[in-house]
Amino acid sequence: MKKELVNNLEFVALSREKIVSEIGKVIVGQHEIIDQLLIALFSGGHVLIVGVPGLAKTLLVKTLASILDLKFSRIQFTPDLMPSDIIGTDIIEEDLETGRKHFKFVAGPIFANMILADEINRTPPKTQSALLEAMQELKVTVNGRDYFLEPPFFVLATQNPIEQEGTYLLPEAQLDRFMFELRIDYPSYDEEKQIVVETTAPEVSQPEKVLERNEILELQKFVRMVPAPDHVVDYAVRLVRASRPKGEFATKMVKDFVEWGAGPRASQFLILGAKARALLRGKPVPTIEDVKAIAYPVLRHRIIVNFAAEAEGITSEDIIADLLENVSES
After folding, report:
1. Residue 164 domain-assigned?
2. What is the enclosing helix (H) or strand (E) of 65?
3. Are residues 172 and 118 in the same domain?
4. 154, 174, 293, 311: which has the fewest C-beta neighbours closer than 10 Å?
């Protein structure tokens, strides 16, 4: 058993190294974002990526899909997009021999392993919610019939934070389905110079496939098999409960500036993500440091600040910083 564990740890670490290397052929920098994407992938979670135009959000997702042997589908969200455009619909089909007509289900682009939901806030809530059942249940329902999606199923949604005209805020229920909210910032001077040099050269490197679908499924199972020490689970639960203004662990800042704190799904994702992060670093069990490392992407979209916080310019990230500083590790 010990030899098998060591072999699995080595396989995970080697896979991470290969994936990062292949992504690096196309994407310059963004090391932390790439690491968090891999944590979410191996945890079986979904990711919301927020960043201004031109920061390679879409390119990053397409590159990751090309490296993994998964069926990829891109959905460009627009104001006139309908739920049936995403999940599919029934059409009437006529049998040429008998002349009898019957309904036939035509699957939509959601029937893939990796979904890029590009500019998800450009479409109304009715269409956004078409993703809800698929993200949580791995199935869609059309006219009372269930159609199951093939695992692994991974939704990566992008969102532009600066253009609010013609956009629709994501419903809280859907935001909570995303394991991480990742925020991509501008590259450094050296990185931007490298981007310009590489993208204006005659040839651009093409990434190679690294993992097969079955290997990804095995890695996801392996993550769940990793034991989480009690003190790590206790810390994750305390951290999440401390984000609730009426909770027993709430800090003064939370009581003063938070309208709604994170729910139990945040605790689940903190532990799952900590397990995946530990494995990606060759560790057999997660630590409190692994939980702290993913606290921002797990909690930033789950903590809703009140009017007093908005008036003083206090954001959910300020609340998370306060929690990490004041919630006891023991």
Report:
1. yes
2. helix 57-67
3. yes
4. 311
